[in-house]
Design a protein that fits this description.
- This protein has 225 residues and is α/β, with parallel strands linked by helices.
- It contains eight helices and ten strands.
- Strands 2-1-3-4 form a four-stranded parallel β-sheet, sandwiched between helices. Strands 8-7-9-10 form a four-stranded parallel β-sheet, covered by helices on one side. A two-stranded antiparallel sheet has the order 5-6.
- The longest helix has 14 residues.
- The protein is globular and about 50 Å long.
- The two termini are 34 Å apart.
- The mean pLDDT is 89.
Length: 225
Amino acid sequence: GARAAELVALGVGRGSRGGVNLERSLELVEALLAVLRAGGAYVPLPPSYPRERVLAMLADSRAELVLGTASSATALGGFRGPLVRVDAPRATSAPAPSARGSADDLAYVIYTSGSTGKPKGVPVTHANLAHSTRARLAYYQRPVERYLLLSSFAFDSSVAGIFWTLVSGGTLVLPPEGFERELTQLPELIARERPSHLLGLPALWALVLEQAPASAVASLTTVIV
């Protein structure tokens, strides 16, 4: 709430876009929710992306500011908007602003991979997000207790896990950044964190089935591939 109030004080509101340059973490989820609560739309900017690509996404999306860390200042050199440091004390302790915006306002802008050309921004409204989340609540009978978030927040599949989990009152399990490069650790992570839900590529799930004993994945009630 206080982070959203800080963004409002910086001018974020309906029609604003705020870039988020953070690794997978609690601060990342807080930043996404803060932009939405302030009335703006968030633009995922993974720190692993090349600087030129991030700057192009910032320009194309018309982002007015970026939420990031000290390293973002160096990585985003050339961006002229404010940098809101989530690893620094908040500039304000004001209470959360009232909900701002409507169903037709943008919630986020996701960029395509660019594998067939220049990455393209896909705008998604609050109505889109609400319908998508309600569909999951209606379709999947088992409520989310603990969701293992394997997707990058730059991909739309992450939105499914984040908001489906939060509106269900569940817990997001956030592996450390770079975990994708050490997927052989996934069975151990599942056994330790005991998630009830996960979403991943078929090859990823096949790896788990090959390497993990049944007892290690017994907590899983819903696996989406």
